[in-house]
Amino acid sequence: MSTTLCLTWLLIAGPAIGAQPAGSITESPAHKRVQAVIDEVQKACLDGPVYMIGRKTALCLAELVRRAKPRLVVECGTALGYSGLWIGRELQAAGRGRLITIELSPQRVRQAEANFRKAGLDRIITVRQGDARQVVKTLTGPIDFVFIDCGYSNYYPILVTLEKKLSGRATVVADNVGIGAGGMKDYLDHVRSKYKSRTEWFDLELPWAKRDAMEISVAGQ
Ligand SMILES: C[S@@+](CC[C@H](N)C(=O)[O-])C[C@H]1O[C@@H](n2cnc3c(N)ncnc32)[C@H](O)[C@@H]1O
Prior knowledge:
The protein is of the alpha/beta class. The protein has helices spanning 3-13, 22-26, 29-47, 55-68, 82-94, 106-118, 132-135, 155-163, 185-194; strands at residues 72-76, 98-103, 125-129, 143-148, 166-174, 196-206, 209-218.
């Protein structure tokens, strides 16, 4: 899988921050509490099905957040909170940073909020209900990390709005750039021409996708 590639990318483009002590953090009660909810939400998503990024992609996303040490993360497309739990856990472990995650469906907002509460991440994560293309207009920067996962044609308008609010060297990650490439050509053309940008492929074990990719872009360089 692409963890190695993901790490290679991080070494090239990510702010070089020393590796964290793996053992102590993964054995902490807080880490385990979040993991139990991640496992539960993963099962609910697979049973649903409710589309989510899956474990392999989430491992890479978490690593990117860990390296970036962001103060403010914005996620577009919460669903039941699976990816948000991975992001929130990294912020919790870092002892700083918060996540604003945006979801169109009021029912999913309620489900995600309940999952974040259960995981003990509700003080770190705020869920905003609405169309992410509109909600991002109301956000105040600087935003250090963006994760976009909410309808391929929305990626470009979301990024254009957020661009003026990004911090100096923000990381912008987009999911589904393999299976959804045709629907987000404007987005991909933009980040690949304007930023240092790389496509990370993953072999997945998800019922709806066996192979897909994330685009990882570093803005403001
Ligand atoms: C692929 S799922 C997100 C999965 C989530 N990131 C995860 O990995 O757990 C996409 C979500 O985006 C939401 N969505 C679709 N269009 C949206 C929009 N314009 N604004 C906000 N959310 C939207 C859908 O309701 C759905 O829950």
